[in-house]
Write a structure and sequence with these properties.
Aspartate Aminotransferase, domain 1, 2 domains, alpha/beta, 348 residues, 4-stranded antiparallel beta sheet, Aspartate Aminotransferase, domain 2, globular
């Protein structure tokens, strides 16, 4: 009896005809939908970069040395570690704390970036969500770590250095840590806590993408005591950050004039975004400006987010008690017009 021949499928460049047709349908559908994604929190204006010299690829050690000098100047902090994005920094901290201390009790001042919860739970820490106002009042459950957004995302609540210092001191006296997520600090123009780490130890995370508008930068920084940054380097590895990323960091640090202009642009774009939503919200609803987005509490927010998605506009609704909606800024005039028309059409 002859063995059966295997069934053959036509393929295009190694992809079955069936799969290829399926992908074509998906890509066509995506183009037809023309989604306008305003759910993120990245500036609509991008840092203009010069052409990267080819020599960058061959000089990682030189770039790394320059980075450490410029990072110390920029953050006014002795120890700064570059990581491949904010999520990488969170994961490394969670693993490091598991190595150092075992399972820790972590309080997340809510609202917070959801990756803090996911990554610390994945590293077998016990995580408790706790209202940020209670944290600032000192009403905190017994814990080893407190994670605090500065400013708080998406409410844009700003927390002063004076509020942070006693909390950082108290946690260190108890053998614990305060972690500050300052990924969105740049648009505020406020001083970073990084420059106070030597006096009142804490760990600060910063990010390039939100303020620079370079969504694909995948570059963030951990500022902390030298022992923490050294241990984190062993955790992430010495080759985690590539030469082009060192080069990008140096461009970002040097762009002082651009940074000042970016603050002016972001203030104007948030004012415009506020006026778009004011038509629907009226004057009595408070709108928070977040540099790259606006946010507000309203009972209709989940329905509005769904209605906007139905017409191809993505915003973010937070299923909290206050029901917060966050809307980013469009890049083009056509997209501004599209958002304005969609907001006007929302039902009360």
């Amino acid at each position: 009896m002859k063995p059966r021949k295997p069934l053959l499928k036509w393929s295009v460049c190694g992809v079955s005809r069936c799969t290829w047709k399926h992908r074509m349908r998906i890509e066509t559908h995506v183009r037809q939908q023309a989604k306008l994604d305003l759910s993120g929190s990245v500036a609509p204006f991008e840092l203009k970069l010069p052409d990267m010299p080819a020599s960058v690829w061959a000089s990682p050690d030189l770039l790394r040395s320059r980075f450490h000098l410029e990072a110390a100047r920029f953050f006014e902090c002795e120890s700064v570690l570059a990581v491949t994005g904010i999520e990488s920094g969170i994961s490394a901290l969670a693993r490091l704390f598991q190595t150092w201390y075992g399972s820790m009790r972590v309080v997340l001042a809510e609202p917070s970036f959801d990756q803090w919860d996911k990554r610390f739970r994945r590293a077998n820490h016990v995580v408790l969500d706790w209202p940020v106002d209670l944290v600032l009042e000192g009403d905190i459950p017994e814990c080893d770590v407190v994670v605090l957004g500065r400013p708080v995302n998406p409410t844009c609540q700003m927390i002063s250095i004076q509020q942070i210092k006693p909390l950082a001191r108290k946690l260190r006296e108890q053998g614990g840590w305060l972690i500050l997520d300052e990924a969105y600090l740049d648009w505020t123009g406020e001083e970073s806590y990084a420059s106070f780490i030597e006096a009142e130890p804490a760990i600060v995370l910063r990010s390039v993408a939100p303020f620079s508008g370079l969504a694909g930068a995948n570059l963030a920084f951990v500022c902390g005591p030298k022992a923490v940054c050294t241990a984190l380097l062993n955790e992430v590895g010495t080759q985690a950050v590539s030469s082009p990323q060192w080069w990008l960091a140096l461009q970002y640090f040097a762009a002082e004039d651009w940074r000042a202009q970016q603050l002016i642009r972001l203030d104007a774009v948030c004012t415009r975004l506020e006026s778009v939503w004011r038509v629907r919200l009226g004057e009595h609803i408070q709108i928070h400006k977040g540099g790259y987005f606006i946010s507000f509490a309203h009972p209709n927010n989940e329905q509005w987010a769904a209605d906007l998605e139905h017409v191809g506009i993505l915003v973010r609704a937070y299923p909290t008690e206050d029901s917060i909606l966050r809307c980013g800024a469009p890049k083009s005039e056509a997209d501004w017009t599209r958002l304005e028309n969609a907001v006007k059409s929302l039902s009360d």
